[in-house]
From TrEMBL:
It is found in: Nucleus. One of its GO terms (biological process) is mRNA processing. This is Symplekin. Residues 356-375 have a biased composition (Basic and acidic residues). Pfam families: SYMPK_PTA1_N, Symplekin_C. One of its GO terms (cellular component) is mRNA cleavage and polyadenylation specificity factor complex. Residues 110-324 form the Symplekin/Pta1 N-terminal domain. Its main location: nucleus.
């Protein structure tokens, strides 16, 4: 079994090598692509996954910009089949797909279109893979990478190439169907059944958000509808979007109403850019899909609309009747709806109000259908949508829009008299073109029922739809009035609830004089007061001065009273005045109560963060304006100095941030709005932001805030970037209770955010400079104290005891260089700085850097100009780094000619270690290779590299000619031509020659024929090499069957050179070792 598997592996390897060979100019009997097809069949023929694992990387090598487009398309098809067989390959191939779809790559349009088609086919597998591995970090990275791929594909919807738009539309269809659930009324064939969210919940998923999936799905569907209603859409794109929309409606019936309305609108308003034959094709396609929808029993409520549209499209009544659903089917749908409605009502009665997102309505659709109908916003202007959204209480926008259309339809129908129609036609005559448009000519059909009530109603409805879309008409006016009445009713209720009811005594006085004249005896007329002298009122005599505690208490009570009247201020529209009053009382007068005002104001803001965020920002802005000197603030000594004003602003800002953080409210909106919108973020406030970013639970919120601050605060960008980059020093937080599971990884979050920021043009340079500056800290003799404290998470007491001359260790070096290495694939110009840093660091730090750069270097293209420039201008001391980089790049790929030239020039210029040439010797000519042999085999320094050197010479192929570098005979002869300069070099030469001749490990397997040929050629040379004497003895021992051959050859040479005593001794020595048994063999 093992032998058979080895044979299959060898056969696949041979096929792949054959496919890589260049085509012959005289033509080939077998095309190279056939070798790949045969290799693919062998890989997928086995049920085991070992073959796929072994040859996946080799197959992906054909997906290259330099490769034939046919190879690239074939490799993309291989990827699709590989995902179907083993979803784990997604961890590797997502990077390849992202690279193919990148706008800066040189792949052809056909290859990129094929890549989009492959993504459409594998997307259900990707979602299934991510859903089933919710706790796998690798699956999360794969999902994030494919989201980037998805974003790149969706951007093609605006491409000028129609082919890209069509492939993108098909991908959008897959996304919508995959990220939604089937209902009981979905029509899905066996061929169309693929993985989707039916019966699944993403609420507890770790990295897939159900809300985000629904929002993305709704946005994509809205974009499809927008494209369908576009007036500039091409015919082919229009047909494919029409097909996709109708397919979505059949598989997701909750979309049916919106699709039917869109098709009705498309039928009325065809794009003016279509030619006559294109219009005919479109009408034929519309008729086909509408007949399919008519046959769907769920659409029985839309049958009148569909029948009318089909009649206008040229369908006969008999054809419409043939495609009507059977009564039994409609009855079954109604029965099923009723059963579902009763089941839902029963469940609600037993369990109380349901909060499930999966609850279904009576028609079998999800409650999310109400959300879908809100997409009608896209067809209305902003003002109209706002009016319709607020109308009819809790009804949704679609119902309000339909009501507006119905009201306007009745209004138009009542006034659609003959006189009005004549005037409309007369006005339209001025706007008619000179020639009949092809679209109108092809769609015009004779109106058989012209003048009938049915035709007038349909015409009135068409006009009403256009009026409602423009936001005019009695329907819009009615709904606006209804909304205003509801608003006034709510305000009146609030006002009545807020008024204090009058007391009985007060009511008697307000009623006025009694109408009774007979009961005067019941009341006693008050006696008139006696006239007295009028005394003047004096404030100093009639009042007394309040004590300081009393005055302060009254001030606090007044301040509290103003805060308690928030509701009345909002009702009266004076909320801004209330905010200004509270802000100025708390900031402009520095009395003994202003600290209490501040505490009360902070507690007041935090009590209702959502509605009082504007008050917090107004308060902080007032303090900053005072600090800038634009408003006056007074204390007992006059106006405070600038430093005191700054301290007040800083204290207020940190107080509210600290209180929010301590109350675990750093995830709320107020915390982030303050940091984003205040005019100045102080260093102390950044401390609270840092704590928020390091929070194990809500750290991601803090990192998002810091990201937005970097984008929107250019003046503090350098300070913010310094704080942001410091998070790359922190190791992941590991939970001991969860068996070492990572709770929060600030470094990974920092790296992810850095990659996002690096894409932004106006941030890239600043971020790059900050990362380079941070990495240059490695050039200092000792590690900075700040880095040591953060990497090792030392407390304040431990930090105080830390010495200033802490040496660099592996963890410190990794923390400093991590970001630079991670961004290498995004910006290969960082290689220059990496080389300069490596040249100035210690040996231990260099070894750590060499281990860290593996993944980053492998992602760099070998043709990168920055890479070639770095090799050419290598800083002194960074030669080992260059050798490491070249070795990593050539592990699986042959070096390019440019790379070979740069490495060769560097070696000649700097006299670098000869071992640095090993990765690129496949680009050397034969003369250069022969010159390298003595340098390797006669130097003790390169003793361990000699086997690798021999292996590359014997098995390597030249990058241009694809021929073997050296034959075994040539290598043996050149070894015997080496001229050692002493016994030491001679000993190394003998030892390394024995590696080939003795070959105890079986690494080279020269064979006795090769050895015999080399010996024959060497014996014909004179004078004979001194090394040959030793080699003959080793061969004599290693290959017994060659003993007679060797003795005879030596004797012949001896006869020609009788005076050579060394040869005479060699013959005697060999004949003395001769064994008759071995001779016979």
């Amino acid at each position: 079994m093992a032998e058979e598997e080895e044979n299959v592996n060898k056969k696949i390897g041979d096929l792949l090598r054959q496919a890589r060979l260049p085509r012959r100019k005289d033509g080939e009997e077998k095309p190279p692509i056939s070798y790949l097809e045969e290799a693919q069949n062998l890989i997928f023929s086995e049920s085991e996954l070992s073959l796929l694992d072994n040859f996946l990387d080799e197959m992906l090598e054909f997906l290259s910009e330099r490769a034939d487009p046919e190879f690239c398309k074939f490799t993309l098809g291989f990827i699709e089949k590989a995902v179907e067989k083993d979803p784990d390959v997604l961890k590797k191939i997502t990077h390849n797909l992202n690279y193919v779809l990148h706008e800066k790559t040189a792949f052809s349009d056909q290859v990129q279109k094929r890549a989009i088609a492959v993504c459409s086919n594998i997307y259900p597998n990707v979602l299934k893979f991510a859903y089933e591995r919710k706790n796998d970090s690798e699956a999360q990275k794969t999902w994030n990478m494919f989201n980037l791929v998805k974003a790149r594909i969706l951007a093609f919807i605006d491409s000028e190439d129609e082919g890209f738009r069509i492939y993108c539309v098909k991908f959008m269809e897959t996304v919508i169907l995959t990220q939604s659930s089937r209902s009981d009324f979905s029509v899905v064939t066996e061929y169309q059944k693929r993985f989707d969210l039916t019966g699944l919940s993403l609420i507890d998923h770790r990295f897939i958000s159900q809300r985000q999936m629904e929002s993305e799905m709704n946005h994509i569907f809205s974009r499809l509808i927008d494209e369908l209603n576009s007036s500039t859409i091409t015919s082919q794109t229009l047909l494919i979007i029409l097909q996709v929309s109708c397919n979505i409606a059949k598989q997701r019936p909750e979309r049916m109403t919106q699709v039917i309305s869109t098709l009705e609108s498309l039928h009325i308003n065809l794009p003016p850019t279509l030619a006559t034959h294109q219009v005919k094709s479109l009408r034929k396609e519309l008729r086909y899909h509408m007949l399919k929808m008519l046959k769907h029993p769920i659409n029985f409520s839309h049958h009148p609309r569909l029948q009318h549209l089909l009649t206008e499209l040229g369908c006969s009544q008999s054809e419409i009747e043939r495609n009507m659903p059977q009564r039994a089917e409609v009855a079954a749908v109604l029965q099923k709806r009723t059963a579902l409605a009763r089941a839902a009502a029963g469940a609600a009665h037993q369990a109380g109000p349901s909060t499930s997102k999966d609850k279904k309505n009576g028609d079998g659709t999800n409650d999310d259908s109400k959300k879908f109908r809100l997409n009608d916003d896209d067809y209305l202007d902003e003002g109209t949508a706002e009016i319709l959204r607020g109308a009819d209480g809790n009804k949704d926008l679609a119902d309000a829009s339909q009501k507006a259309v119905d009201i306007t339809t009745d209004y138009v129908f009542d006034r659609l008299s003959l006189n009005v129609v004549v005037k409309l036609v007369s006005i339209s005559l001025f706007t008619l073109p000179d020639e009949m448009p092809p679209a109108f000519q092809s769609t015009y059909t004779r109106i058989d029922n012209a003048g009938t009530e049915e035709q007038k109603k349909y015409l009135a409805k068409i006009i009403a739809m256009q009026l409602t879309k423009e936001g005019i008409g009695p329907g819009i006016t009615f709904i606006r009035e209804q909304k205003q009445q509801q608003y006034l009713a709510r305000q009146s209720a609030r006002m009545e609830g807020a008024v204090i009811p009058p007391t009985p005594g007060r009511e008697d006085k307000l009623e006025g004089p009694s109408t009774s004249t007979t009961d005067e005896d019941k009341f006693v007329r008050p006696s008139l007061p006696k006239k007295s002298r009028i005394t003047q009122w004096d404030i100093l005599r009639n009042t007394k001065e309040l004590l300081l505690p009393q005055a302060q208490n009254l001030s606090l009570m007044a301040f509290q009273r103003i805060m308690d009247n928030e509701r009345r201020a909002n009702q009266g529209g004076a909320f801004l005045a209330q905010h200004q009053l509270l802000t100025r009382l708390a900031t402009r007068y520095l009395s003994k109560t202003h600290e209490q005002f501040t505490e009360m104001l902070i507690e007041y803001i935090i009590a209702d963060q959502k509605n009082r965020a504007e008050l917090a920002l107004l308060w902080l802005n007032e303090l900053f304006i005072q600090y800038g000197g634009y408003t006056v603030v007074l204390n007992s000594k006059g106006e405070p100095d600038v430093k005191e004003k700054y301290v007040r602003y800083d204290t207020a800002l940190c107080s509210i941030l600290g209180l929010l953080f301590n109350r675990k409210d750093n995830k709320e909106t107020l915390f982030h709005r303050i940091l984003l919108e205040v005019p100045l973020v102080t260093p102390a406030a950044l401390t609270w932001l840092k704590k928020s970013c390091l929070d194990p639970i809500y750290g991601a919120f803090g990192m998002t805030t810091l990201r937005e601050m970097i984008l929107t605060r250019p003046r503090q960008r350098s300070e913010l970037l310094k704080l942001f980059l410091s998070f790359s020093y922190y190791e992941p937080v590991v939970s001991a209770e969860r068996s070492g599971q990572v709770v929060y990884d600030a470094r990974d979050n920092c790296v992810t955010t850095a990659k996002e920021l690096y894409v932004v043009d106006y941030i890239r340079d600043d971020l790059r400079d900050a990362i380079v500056e941070m990495s240059y800290q490695l050039t200092s003799p000792t590690a900075p104290k700040e880095i040591v404290v953060q990497v090792r998470r030392l407390s304040n007491e431990e930090a105080d005891l830390l010495e200033d001359d802490t040496p660099w260790d592996e963890s410190l070096v990794k923390a400093v260089i991590h970001l630079l290495v991670t961004l290498l694939p995004s910006d290969d110009s960082l290689l220059k700085h990496l080389a300069e840093i490596t040249a100035k660091t210690t040996k231990d730090a260099q070894r750590t850097i060499f281990n860290c750069i593996v993944q980053g270097i492998k992602a760099i293209d070998m043709h990168s100009q920055a890479l070639l420039d770095t090799i050419e201008n290598c800083p002194p001391g960074a030669e080992i780094l260059i050798a490491r980089i070249v070795n990593l790049l050539t592990e699986r790929n042959a070096p390019t000619q440019e790379l070979v030239a740069k490495v060769r020039n560097l070696h000649n210029k700097r006299n670098t270690d000869i071992r640095s040439l090993l990765p690129v010797i496949t680009g050397f000519d034969k003369e250069e290779l022969l010159n390298l042999i003595p340098k390797f085999v006669m130097n003790a320094t390169y003793h361990k590299s000699v086997p690798i050197f021999f292996k590359k010479l014997l098995y390597g192929r030249h990058i241009q000619t694809h021929e073997p570098l050296l034959s075994p005979v040539e290598l043996l002869i050149e070894l015997h031509h080496c001229e050692p300069r002493g016994m030491i070099e001679m000993g190394h030469l003998v030892h390394n020659t024995d590696l080939l001749l003795v070959d105890k490990t079986g690494l080279f397997q020269l064979g006795k024929e090769v050895v015999a040929q080399a010996i024959e050629l060497l014996l014909n040379e004179y004078p004979i090499s001194k090394l040959l004497h030793h080699s003959l003895q080793k061969i004599y021992e290693r290959y017994p069957s060659l003993k007679n051959f060797i003795i005879n050859m030596v004797k012949n040479i001896t006869e020609r050179h009788e005076y050579d005593e060394e040869l005479q001794k060699l013959v005697v020595k060999l004949e003395g070792q001769r064994d008759p048994l071995t001779v016979q063999n």
